[in-house]
Design brief:
Helix 5 runs antiparallel to helix 6. With 148 residues, the chain is mainly alpha-helical. 21% of the residues are buried. Helices cover 71% and strands 0% of the residues. It has 7 helices and no strands.
């Protein structure tokens, strides 16, 4: 059945304006997804056109990053659409970003500023995603909450 034949009922949450915290969390998730796409494309192009030590590994790494970008990009779209399922992938993305940020911070290179930025973005997004206002806007009830 199509959406025209079976329209979704309007809920009070969907008629209210989207909270700023929810929008910011979606923007941060989208930025992470876009960064993964750009990084994956960069590695892929270098692997195909450059002279890497292992061409297959470079191509595989680039494709993997591009595929991993789907998770935060889909989560961002769901957050903007106020879909309750989207918070899970968005939180998972932030939790996965924390060890990456930690490893970048431990590097002895120009990766340290990237680790700082990634860590700040991940922690900020996590705080925004678990915020009560965001949870309410997504229609997620906490444990022990009665259905209305």
């Amino acid at each position: 059945m199509s959406a025209e034949q079976n329209p979704a009922p309007e809920t009070p949450e969907s008629t209210e304006p989207r909270p700023l915290r929810l929008t910011l969390a979606a923007v941060l998730a989208a930025m992470e997804g876009l960064a993964l796409v750009v990084g994956g494309a960069f590695i892929l192009v270098l692997g195909l056109t450059g002279d890497p030590d292992d061409r297959q590994q470079a191509v595989t790494g680039g494709v993997t990053l591009i595929v991993l970008a789907l998770l935060p990009l889909l989560a961002a779209r769901g957050l903007l659409g106020r879909r309750s399922w989207s918070r899970g992938p968005a939180v998972i993305t932030q939790i996965m970003a924390l060890p990456v940020a930690y490893n970048l911070l431990r590097a002895d290179s120009m990766a340290i500023p990237g680790g700082i930025v990634l860590g700040v973005v991940a922690v900020t997004a996590l705080v925004l995603l678990v915020n009560q206002e965001t949870t309410r806007a997504l229609g997620i009830r906490g444990p022990g909450s009665e259905a209305e």
